[in-house]
Each structure stands twice: as C-alpha cells, then as structure tokens.
Amino acid sequence: MVTVRDQSDTFIECLTIGARGDRTGVFTVASILKGAVIVKMQGDLLASPNEYSIQIDTHKHLGKGGLIDDEMNHSCDANAKIEFTDLTIRAKRQITPGEEVCINYCATEDNLANIFRCDCGSAHCYGIVTGCQYLSREQRDSIKDELSPYLKRKYYVKESPNSGGDVNDDEGEPQQGDQAEHQ
Ligand SMILES: [Zn+2]
Asked: Whose CB has fewer CB within 10 Å in the chain, the N or C terminal residue?
C-alpha cells in the first residue's frame, strides 16, 4: 500500500507532462529555486528492483508512487536530484519555466534494468546509460553528492582494514572500461 504524502509545500502542481522528441517527459511551468522540494516521493518498498524502482539500499527499492515523478527522464547533467534523507526530489540549480526536470538514474541504479541510449544533449553525456558501476571514476565523482547512500557506501566509503576489501582504491576500477559510445 503506497503511503500518500502531503505535497502542499512542493512544486508538484507546476509540473506537466510534455513531449521531448518522440517521448514524454516532465516539464515545469514555473521557476523552481535551487534546493526547493519539487516532489515528495512515495511508493512501496520492494525487496527487488523493477523497471520503475529506485534503489534505496541493498535490498530496498522504492516502487512506482503513482505521481508525476514516475515519468521523470534521466539526464547526464540533471537539474534535479533525490534527497535520500527525506525521499524528496529537489532542484540542483534554478530550473526555469519550460525546462524538462530530470534526475540522473546512475545516482540510484548500479545496474539499470533497462539500458538505453541517452539523448540528454549534455556535453558530458554518457552515451549509453547502463548504471553507476559502468561510469568512469570522473563521471562518478561528478555525481558523488547525489549518489544514494547505498552507492556512496559502495564506491566512496573505505571498508575497515580487517574486512578484507578496499572499494575506494585510487588506482581505478576493473569495470571502468572505455566509454566507447561517448560523443
Ligand atoms: Zn546523457
């Protein structure tokens, strides 16, 4: 059962579904200041991911909430991000009327259920979006602040010396790979 959250102090009423090319996205009709709460997310907590879920923790995925943010597209240079302390979507910078509101899917998904070719138009577009684990260190560092606690732990918190592994090795990661689709 989805817990319905009060959206009265958010920008949800300013959001509208619009077209970007041959698909839909979420656009704002009002100016949204940096840091403002755009939507309070809601949804069931699931033990395993699905096409629409957002990974919160190791075995914790937030399912579809039935609100407009379910339709938010990915951008490699997103203007919004998820704040995990209160499960809200907030503006990363000022968003102007008519702009599409996007989040970065790689900030929550280590391994996307649906890989896709990105057309966000950013100078730093990933090309093919596959998930956080496939980002280069530089790409991951650029979204470090918006990574889910789960991914922050995985990539940025040093494990204790007696745990055997060190996931924060500056020498680079084996799965870094060439970004062959980079444009
Ligand atoms: Zn992109």
From this structure: N
Per DSSP, the three-state class of 156 is helix
Q: Are 148 and 156 in contact (CB under 8 A)?
A: no
Residue type (1 letter), 128: I
Confidence of residue 48 (pLDDT cuts 50, 70, 90): confident
The whole model's pTM is what? 0.83
* Ligand 1 centroid – CA 117 distance (Å): 8
Instruction: Say which range, 72-86, 124-138, 147-161, has the weakest mean pLDDT.
Output: 147-161
What 3-state DSSP class applies to 142? helix
How many Å lie between the centroid of ligand 1 and the Cα of residue 125?
4
* CA-to-CA dists, residue 117 to 12, 99, 163, angstroms: 28, 21, 38
Q: Which residues contact 107 (CB under 8 A, 6 or more apart)?
A: 78, 81, 82, 132, 143, 146, 147, 148, 151
Q: Give me ligand 1 centre to Cα 31, in Å.
A: 23
The domain 12-163: what is its CATH number?
A: 2.170.270.10
Tokens 């319905």 belong to which residue? Answer: 4
pLDDT for 62-100, tens place per residue? 999 999 999 999 999 999 999 999 999 999 999 999 999
Distance from the alpha carbon of residue 9 to the mean position of ligand 1, in angstroms = 30
> What does the pLDDT average to over 119-136?
96
Going from N- to C-terminal start, the domains of the chain cover: 12-163
